[in-house]
Amino acid sequence: MKDTNKPTSVNELADKTYIVNLAKVGLTTLMAIGSIALVTQQAQALSALGIVNGISSSGGVGVSRDIDYGDAPLQNLDMYYPKPLAQAMQAQSAITDSYPMIVFVYGGSWENGSKEDYAFVGQSLAQAGYVTAVVNYRKAPEYVYPDFVEDTAKAIAWSYENATKFHANPERLAVVGHSAGAFNAVAAIANEDFLAPYGMSPSDISAVVGIAGPYSYDFRKFDSASAFPADATPDEVMPDRQLKGTQPPYLLLTAENDKIVYETNTIKMTQALKDFGATVETGEIKGASHATSIGAMAKPLRWVNDVRAQVLTYLDKELK
After folding, report:
1. Does pLDDT of 27 surpass 70?
2. How do residues 246-258 score in pLDDT, each as one tens digit?
């Protein structure tokens, strides 16, 4: 990411490079760990994220699937539980521990992706001791901004209000997003108007982590224009220009070799937050592409880069 003046494109799941690179990493790992049961033809038929999930172990974590946080299409989530909690729930034992909680929002140009695709993220964070919600949201082009941000805010508020039902502590809740999901997460929290309908403010969130997020770019020049109203401008929708309310602390990460979302987004978002009085930490994921900046959350791919270590070091500091 040497050229900080390049424009931003967020068509990560539609972009062939995203799919091919992550698939290569997944297939390389499959061979490295001796998982030769998949023949070449079968492997080629799998999506890149399907490969990642296929080689990822749950590590004993539990999951409750298809929980509705709203009544509209795709307003649902999957909840992942750390192994000790999952075992206690299965045994119907008394549970006295209260766990920190993460709401994870995936990317996909606001058009693609599903919570099932990102099961490996829910598993990874639950393995680290966090009750984790992996949330769906309505997609473009049928639904455009601010619908997917409103869904994210609704999912955050629902998780906050229902945390104790899942043995989590709402006072230790963080929101993590990748790519377009990082946009959703940051936009839903940076502007208090999105959480206000639920009686919440941004400061109710303990921490926000954005990974390779497109927070500040002119969407009108790219295919992602279909995710925004035809007459919208960047000044009206980009989260670096929509700050309102007392802010929680942020960690904003960029991928060293990201050719899809450039670091100018993080630079501008960081400056806007700091100018607004927020606490912001930044970091670079060495050797990471846009795809592997989230793919390396999966256990078999953690050797690829240190995104998981950076995220967990920050969250452990803020939540535990």
Report:
1. no
2. 999 999 999 999 9
- Rounded CA gap, 225 and 232, in Å? 9
In a domain, 83, yes or no: yes
User: Which candidate, 109, 102, 101, 104, places its Cα nearest to that of 119?
Assistant: 104
Give the span between the Cα atoms of 71 and 158, in whole angstroms.
12
What is the secondary structure of 142-201 as a DSSP string? TS-TTHHHHHHHHHHHHHHHHGGGGTEEEEEEEEEEETHHHHHHHHHHHBTTTTGGGT--
Give the confidence band of 81 by pLDDT, cuts at 50, 70, 90. very high
Predicted TM-score (pTM) of the model is 0.87
Q: Are strands 280-285 and 76-81 parallel, antiparallel or unpaired?
A: unpaired
Q: Which two tokens stand for residue 274?
A: 């700091």
Domain extent at residue 243 = 16-319
131-135: strand order across its sheet: 62-68, 76-81, 131-135, 99-105, 168-178, 207-211, 250-255, 280-285
pLDDT tens per residue, range 44-67: 334 778 878 877 778 899 999 999
Q: Is residue 4 part of a domain?
A: no
State the total domains in the chain. 1
Burial of 182 (0-12, 13-18, 19+ CB in 10 A): buried
Q: For the chain, percent helix, then strand, then coil, each to nearest 5?
A: 40, 15, 40
Domain CATH number, residue 21: 3.40.50.1820
